[in-house]
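Blackboard transcription, Thursday session:
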Amino acid sequence: MSRKAIVNWCLALAMVAVFAVSFLIGGKAAVNQENPDERFAGTDSKATSQIQEIDPSYEPWFSSVFQPGSGELESGLFALQAAIGGSILGFAVGAYWGRRRAEKAAVGAPSAPSGSPAPEAGS
Amino acid sequence: MHIAEGFLPVAHCVAWYAVSTPFVVHGARRVIQQAKEHPESRLLLAAAGAFTFVLSSIKLPSVTGSSSHPTGTGLGAVLFRPPVMAFLSTIVLMFQALLLAHGGITTLGANVFSMGIAGPWVGFWFFTLSNRLGWNRNVGVFLAVALADLSTYLVTSFQLAFAFPDPVSGLGGSVAKFMGVFALSQIPLAIAEGLLGVLVFRLLTDVAKPELERLGVLKPTLVEQAVR
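(Written on the board underneath:)
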């Protein structure tokens, strides 16, 4: 494996490790909270409860134009958002990758017999 | 960092709209200009927007026992400079406000300011600083992506504290309370987002090196050195 690949794998593993540790510590922290049912509640909704705690008389003066209706529908829409983003990201990287390969093949084939070390540099 | 619909007083909503609008308009112009003058960078522009789109939709567990989501704005700020992210973040936040009941139309101005303006600029500053200090480019990208994420949530804490100062401990007490909700939870997420940002950036330098050089993100000479 090239050094580049090793570094990339380490980055990915480190990221997984951060979440594993977060999940373990967070799971313990959540048990000690007053409401154990609300494990891993979103910070956005916690901020909303904090507002109501600071100013109990505050009434939100506008409500969402569209409500997904249930948590299941909501997570579906979030998944849709991730899917749209992921497809575009994958398409862009894939398109660049394909073009690089085509360029490399075009450059590499005729100049290979000349014995220059340049074509190997990027591989 | 999404302030829920209706959860900012009217005056604050108007004020944040007024602050954010010029940045977003300028950002939209920059996006159009970028796409026109450098058509070859369009795919990269789409990739930067898509990165934000994905990351801001994923809620992840954190050490405090709550969950939160990354912002994904630092990478685009490094690639295309921060104004572009003001526009791209607005699209993401509008999608979430209209379809997911997450964030809101009334609080859009405030949310765009934290996620689309403050975060990207902080990230970009740290990337520039790291380059000036001659640090490894990976370190610069990590700092940019992680701190764009973290600073977004810090700004949200201040925005909420301005709107809801604590009746006893005042503004400072309120800042501390909102930071208690956001800041600690966000640190591991920011670190993870930083690592992912470096990974994606390395991937892009691999496949789209000429485009990044044209954008000025990579200096050709440095790249030659790195390759050898």
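Lecturer's comment: The first strand of chain A starts at residue 41 and ends at 42.
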